[in-house]
Design a protein that fits this description.
Blueprint (H helix, E strand, L loop, with lengths): L17 E2 L15 E4 L9 H4 L7 H9 L9 E3 L2 E3 L19 E3 L6 H22 L6 E5 L3 H13 L3 E6 L2 H9 L4 E4 L5 H8 L5 E6 L4 H9 L1 E9 L13 H6 L3 E4 L7 H13 L9 E6 L3 H9 L5 E5 L1
Parallel strand pairs: 6-7, 6-9, 7-8, 9-10, 10-11, 12-13
Antiparallel strand pairs: 1-2, 2-5, 3-4
Helix pairs in contact: 3-4, 3-9
């Protein structure tokens, strides 16, 4: 989309699942035959952020994403003698990829790989933002701006957390229908009505306790902030262009003690959170079957992207 710096040419894809084909010298965390999920936010495990339980903020993850190279400076892909870059250390749009051992997480072999592929970003980012960043309380009110892959997981995360009122905002009717399927109690078409006014009308004029922006637009980030009640928290998970800025009224920020914060990768600890997500799925609380709307062979990957842009799918996967 042009929102993030990427080094090209590259093999794209940052979500996925697979089976380990081989490992390098000294790798003991996984072995050939293991089922794994690649983690697009590589973490070192020893820096101040990793030690504080915030591995998504590890500088190594930023380095590997920005440069398109592995930590040793190399790239393991070539085409006709030309160097091809990695993407987020994962590069899942390929039959095989080379991924740092610390960036793969072993999962149970009886867990379906097609469902596992959904956990690597959209699910852990959306559900994680609810539980790890906002810490949504039972009985609370929530607004979610954007009902795409991440927004739907914010919605179902809020439902799992026990939120009483979950208001979804989008401009596509079919996405709002998806939102209802994933737990939204109310929906608002932001293209035909003032979303902030509607949210306040649904909350006795007070606003919501939590608002999530899952689009990546400064305008909707501001709307999320404006929809808050006193001491409310707005969590931005959408990624805007790198030079984008958002402004908020200082008066309400201070005198109403509102909070505006960001959450990357669901503020998660994947080694802890992904097993929890698997458990939620097994008990019927996490909707992965419903999230997986379509499957495409790799040759139809452009069709998959077109369907995603049109809002026809909640989430789709590419198979090899």
């Amino acid at each position: 989309t042009g929102h993030l710096v990427a080094s090209l040419p590259a093999i794209l894809g940052h979500e996925g699942s697979g089976i380990v084909a081989d490992v390098g010298p000294g790798v003991t965390s996984v072995k050939p035959g293991d089922h794994v999920i690649p983690l697009w936010r590589l973490s070192c495990g020893t820096c101040e952020y990793c030690s504080d339980g915030r591995p998504a903020l590890c500088p190594e993850g930023t380095q590997i994403r920005m440069t398109g190279r592995l930590l040793d400076g190399s790239t393991r892909f070539t085409l006709d003698g030309q160097e091809i870059k990695h993407f987020a250390g994962v590069s899942s749009f390929a039959e095989y990829s080379v991924i740092p051992a610390r960036a793969v997480l072993k999962i149970p072999e009886d867990f379906p790989l097609d469902r596992a592929a959904l956990l690597g970003c959209a699910v852990i980012t959306g559900v994680g933002a609810v539980f790890n960043c906002a810490r949504v309380r039972p009985g609370s009110s929530v607004a979610v701006f954007g009902a795409g892959g991440i927004g739907l997981n914010v919605i179902q995360g809020a439902a799992i957390a026990g939120a009483e009122k979950i208001i979804a905002v989008d401009i596509l009717p079919n996405k709002l229908e998806f939102a209802r399927q994933f737990g939204a109690t109310h929906t608002i078409n932001g293209s035909t009505t003032n979303a902030v006014e509607q949210i306040r009308a649904l909350t006795d004029g007070k606003g919501v306790e939590y608002a999530f922006e899952a689009i990546g637009l400064p305008a909707t980030m501001r709307q999320a902030y404006d929809s808050l009640r006193k001491r409310g928290m707005a969590v931005v998970v959408g990624v805007a262009p790198m030079t984008a800025e958002v402004s908020v009224p200082v008066m309400s920020l201070v005198y109403e003690e509102r909070i505006l914060t960001g959450s990357v990768y669901g503020s998660s600890r994947p080694s802890i959170d992904i097993p929890k997500l698997i458990a939620l799925y097994r008990t019927g609380k996490l909707k992965l079957d419903e999230l997986l709307t379509r499957r495409y062979p790799f040759a139809q990957i452009n069709e998959a992207y077109d369907a995603l842009e049109r809002g026809e799918v909640a989430r789709s996967i590419v198979t090899f």
